């Protein structure tokens, strides 16, 4: 891939897996627009990675403004070649205690906003008949994990949406794939695991490689799926998990 000509959008690109992806893309000469809610983090990331990195401060859970957001990005930077749907939230709580509002908030951010921004970016990509979309799923879509019912529902839906999108869009030149990270050392996983020793031990016991992954491990997989190295790959769910999904 002549990556110097490429333009990427990375949601949640200023922290965790998104930050690692932004780093990888900019290192490879890909102009990267990061979207997130925390303007201080966004500005810091742009300062860190230089002239190939730009940001738009926006809360993607407000889907009403996404068409305008994508239109503004296209007008200023051109048609995106790559979209990485990484932004997401989690909510850890016993099933019977989860409220409708809490469930809906996770679904809105993790699923509906992904649909909305993908739809608008696809409208742009169809003008060139090319593009690569990478969705981020989770081990919560691979098997049952307690206390994260809304997160599990949203990520399972992301995998189904990936396959449906790939089937419809690949004939039009747009590849759609998904990465299901295992347990990666990020702030989000720390909140879920660091104060729950039994949960952490369970993760380690069923991960054959015996350790948490690093954000860069996921970023490398995202980069592969984004580039022409994966030009005949579409509709896959790639597990980057140290073997966790097949561990016993």
UniProtKB/TrEMBL annotation:
Record keywords: Oxidoreductase
Keyword Iron found: no
GO molecular function, one term: oxidoreductase activity, acting on the CH-OH group of donors, NAD or NADP as acceptor
Pfam families in alphabetical order: adh_short_C2 (PF13561)
SUPFAM superfamilies referenced in this protein's UniProt entry, alphabetically: NAD(P)-binding Rossmann-fold domains
UniProt record similarity statement: Belongs to the short-chain dehydrogenases/reductases (SDR) family.
Protein name, per record: SDR family oxidoreductase
Organism per entry: Mucilaginibacter rubeus
């Amino acid at each position: 891939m002549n990556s110097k000509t490429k333009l990427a959008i990375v949601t949640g690109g200023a922290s965790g897996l998104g930050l690692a992806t932004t780093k990888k893309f900019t290192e490879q000469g890909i102009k990267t627009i990061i979207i997130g809610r925390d303007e201080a983090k966004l500005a810091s990331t742009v300062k860190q990675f230089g002239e190939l990195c730009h940001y738009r401060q926006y809360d993607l859970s407000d889907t009403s403004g996404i068409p305008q957001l994508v239109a503004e990005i296209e007008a200023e930077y051109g048609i995106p070649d790559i979209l990485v749907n990484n932004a997401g939230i989690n909510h850890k709580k016993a099933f019977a205690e989860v409220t409708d509002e809490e469930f809906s908030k996770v679904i809105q951010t993790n699923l509906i906003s992904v649909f909305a921004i993908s739809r608008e970016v696809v409208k742009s990509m169809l003008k060139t008949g090319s593009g690569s979309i990478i969705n981020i799923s989770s081990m919560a879509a691979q098997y049952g994990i307690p206390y994260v019912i809304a997160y599990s529902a949203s990520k399972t839906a992301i995998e189904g949406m990936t396959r449906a999108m790939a089937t419809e869009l690949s004939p039009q030149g747009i590849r759609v794939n998904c990465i299901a990270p295992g347990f990666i050392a990020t702030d989000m996983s720390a909140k879920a695991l660091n104060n729950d020793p039994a949960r952490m031990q369970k993760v380690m016991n069923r991960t054959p490689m015996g350790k948490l992954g690093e954000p860069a491990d996921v970023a490398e997989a995202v980069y592969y799926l984004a580039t022409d190295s994966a030009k005949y790959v579409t509709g896959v769910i790639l597990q980057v998990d140290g073997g966790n999904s097949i561990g016993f």
